[in-house]
């Protein structure tokens, strides 16, 4: 019986994409904080599903960025989870 080996190669996006994403997340973080500061009730604001998703998607970028700078090699696979979480923002 023949075996099939599927190897995974590490890929990196062009550095320009990182800077576009960084600027977008900085802008979005500022917008989120502004909405939170000026809302009438912060507790209600933080409990709405859209804002929970926005917060998780935003914080996952910064966690992914920090872990990417500290981890390498096979440990990098565990960080991909945070990249997937950011996709939730697209559905909200």
Bin the helical content.
Answer: 55-70%
Unreliable stretches covering 5 or more consecutive residues: none
* Rg (CA only): 17 Å
Q: How many β-strand stretches? A: 0
For the sheet with most strands, the description reads: none
GO molecular function, one term: delayed rectifier potassium channel activity
Keywords: Ion channel, Ion transport, Membrane, Potassium, Potassium channel, Potassium transport, Transmembrane, Transmembrane helix, Transport, Voltage-gated channel
Subcellular location: Membrane
Protein name: Ion_trans domain-containing protein
Summary of the model, kept short:
The chain is mainly alpha-helical and 92 residues long. It is 67% helix and 0% strand. Pfam families: Ion_trans (PF00520).
List the helices and strands and how they pair.
Layout: H1 15-38, H2 42-47, H3 49-70, H4 80-85, H5 88-91
Helix pairs in contact: 1-3
